[in-house]
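User: Hey, my collaborator sent me this sequence without any context and asked if I could get a structure. I don't really work with proteins. Can you help?
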Amino acid sequence: MMNTSLKPLTSSAVLRAATTLILAEGGTSSLIVKQFLLNQGYQAYEAEVARCLFLLALQEGWTIQDNGLFRVYYFPTPGTSPQ
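Assistant: No problem. I've predicted the 3D structure and written it out in structure-token form, which is a compact way to encode the shape of the chain:
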């Protein structure tokens, strides 16, 4: 049964969550963003969060580090070009 009290996921919610987590922790992943959004009352599925976060990171020029298992997102460091 679907919980209708959950807020629908939006790209702005994903961006706010990822930004908050990067500021707090230095970097984040889609799994961490998904859990953060669930805790905030959003309906968040891993695949949807991962896709949205990846597109936002490209748009924002964030650094993306893919370790083969998952991607970690960081704000770009000064003097480096976005990936």
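In plain terms: Residues 11-25 form the longest helix (15 residues). You can pass these tokens on to your collaborator as they are.
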